[in-house]
């Protein structure tokens, strides 16, 4: 994800709890401000929430931690810093009280130590609030459970009825604020769902995400731990061919090119973008363009290929990656690609939401050999890298 948020239509407020000392993780900095996969740990969650449409973000920080927090979140907007309390529950309440002037309808409360936050979880939580005052993401317990008594197995538990609870947790703001205000300070709240349940409200369960693993120990900072063994960088390749025919428009890299022939296909037949889409999907192991936009489906008749690219980029993001670079080669005798190369790069960079320097467009011929050499069609090859967020 980029630092510029997408302003998608899911308005809500959010609180990131980043007031702990993180002593189990070791290191000179509290773990929430320590680097993880190329950026401070807390920044992953802040960016994800802002990208999802968070209108107001409160970050609860330790006493004296404002300078560290501001450095970790530099460049992000709509953030307010609040000092935490002696317990997690007190820290959350401080964050909730900071939102009282704006009085949002919905609020998400998230732990800074869970960086692997992706849009589908947020969407499920927001949706569940239509029928409940609270909602939490959960995962099934897949291992057998045993009761430990002095190092000996003293019994078992029914894993079918148990769930692993994650954050963010979503609430109707007024309900969770009142629940925290009514909470008895001598009781230890494991999370905010327990606080809401203690006030008599029901909490809905939605599907969580294994990538929301909590970063706790020093070894969690080694490599990419957001998805267990998720590979930090992946590579995909794509190849496509379309026939040149009279009477068709010629679209390449999302640009209409003036030529006496155009490419024939079910959509706009943009061979360059089709190769890029296949490369993106290949990098995350999610089929090909025909899987997502089958030519047998009439709704894609004449469809503009930029929408295929946007869909593939979205899937890359949902898989926990962002586009690293793209290298595209067009193979044809005509038209000449050189005069259009810069505009093609700019359009590709726009569609992929990357800098111009991350996009390469090249062209070659086949020395009059084969169908491209005879001017019967255009081929395109694309390679892309995607990098773990």
Topology of this structure?
Elements: E1 12-17, E2 35-36, E3 39-40, H1 41-51, E4 54-61, H2 66-72, E5 79-83, H3 88-98, E6 106-111, H4 119-128, E7 134-140, E8 146-149, E9 152-156, E10 163-165, E11 169-172, H5 173-182, H6 192-198, E12 203-207, E13 233-245, E14 250-252, E15 255-257, E16 262-264, H7 271-283, H8 289-292, H9 306-318, E17 321-331, H10 341-352, E18 359-364, H11 370-373, E19 377-388
Parallel strand pairs: 1-4, 1-6, 4-5, 7-12, 17-18
Antiparallel strand pairs: 2-3, 6-11, 7-10, 7-11, 8-9, 13-16, 13-19, 14-15, 17-19
Helix pairs in contact: 3-5, 5-6, 7-9
Beta-strand percent range: 25-35%
| Computed Rg | 25 Å
How many strand elements? 19
How much helicity do the residues have? 25-40%
Mean pLDDT: 87
Helix-strand string:
EEEHEHEHEHEEEEEHHEEEEEHHHEHEHE
Q: Identify the overall geometry.
A: elongated
Give the low-pLDDT segments. 1-9, 223-229
Question: What's the quick description here?
Answer:
This protein has eleven helices and 19 strands. It has helices at 41-51, 66-72, 88-98, 119-128, 173-182, 192-198, 271-283, 289-292, 306-318, 341-352, 370-373, and strands at 12-17, 35-36, 39-40, 54-61, 79-83, 106-111, 134-140, 146-149, 152-156, 163-165, 169-172, 203-207, 233-245, 250-252, 255-257, 262-264, 321-331, 359-364, 377-388.
